Amino acid sequence: MVELKVRKVGNSLGTVFPREALDRLKLREGDRVFLTETPDGYRVTPYDPEFERQMELAEEGMAAYRNTLRALAT
């Protein structure tokens, strides 16, 4: 577990990630991250444009073959 402290940044609030967390998440200055609510709390994940593209393709495929996938699932 890594403790983060919320600090005032201009008129907003922000937090500073320690180097070990940045290295583990493979984050660099200017990268985008997502804060996702899960049943266990919140999760911080890096933005991965390749994963987003793959998910869009998968969703298109699932939509195109919805009836076939439904039949295979039964």
From TrEMBL:
SUPFAM superfamilies: AbrB/MazE/MraZ-like. InterPro entries: Doc_partner, SpoVT-AbrB_dom, SpoVT-AbrB_sf. It comes from the Bacteria. It holds the Pfam family MazE_antitoxin. One of its GO terms (molecular function) is DNA binding. Residues 7-52 form the SpoVT-AbrB domain. This is Putative addiction module antidote. It comes from Limimonas halophila.
